Amino acid sequence: QLQLVESGGGLVQPGGSLRLSCAASGFAYAIGWFRRAPGKEREGVSCISRSGDSTKYADSVKGRFTISRDNAKNTVYLQMNSLKPEDTAVYYCAASTYLIGSLEERTYRYWGQGTQVTVSS
Question: Residue 119 and residue 99: Cα distance in Å, rounded?
């Protein structure tokens, strides 16, 4: 059973930056980041293939967020810049059973517990 642990969340002012980390307990295929804002359904934010060559982003975060991975450390990162109040959410990472990622939840088998990101002045 693959375990995922997110870290790096916190409180940041609008326009600020945070870097989230997702540490896997072992080998992982594609990894995705999702988020659930208060009162909303969970949505896909970004994903990265096993090799790191293929990435995808939701339109709402394109140009502001960057996903990357270090397979030697079994860790995936989400660099979040120019944060907005609407980015406030619990952020989850998830591991797929496919080499190429997707922003659809149904393609992911393993999930972390989430980390809170709050963007507020």
Answer: 32
| C-alpha separations of 20 from 84, 94, 115, 118 in Å | 16, 13, 8, 13
Quick: pLDDT tens for 22-57: 999 998 899 999 999 999 999 999 999 999 999 999
The residues with which 105 forms a beta bridge, in sequence order, are: none
Judged by DSSP in three states, 87 sits in helix
Predicted confidence (pLDDT) per residue in 66-110, tens digit? 999 999 999 999 999 999 999 999 999 999 989 998 999 999 999
Nearest-angstrom CA–CA distance, 41 and 102: 17
Phi/psi of residue 12, each to 5°?
Answer: -140, 150
> And the tokens for 107?
């393609």
Q: Which two tokens stand for residue 53?
A: 């060559």
- What single string gives the DSSP state of each residue in 29-86? S-EEEEEE-TTS--EEEEEE-SSS--EEE-TTTTTTEEEEEETTTTEEEEEE-S--GG
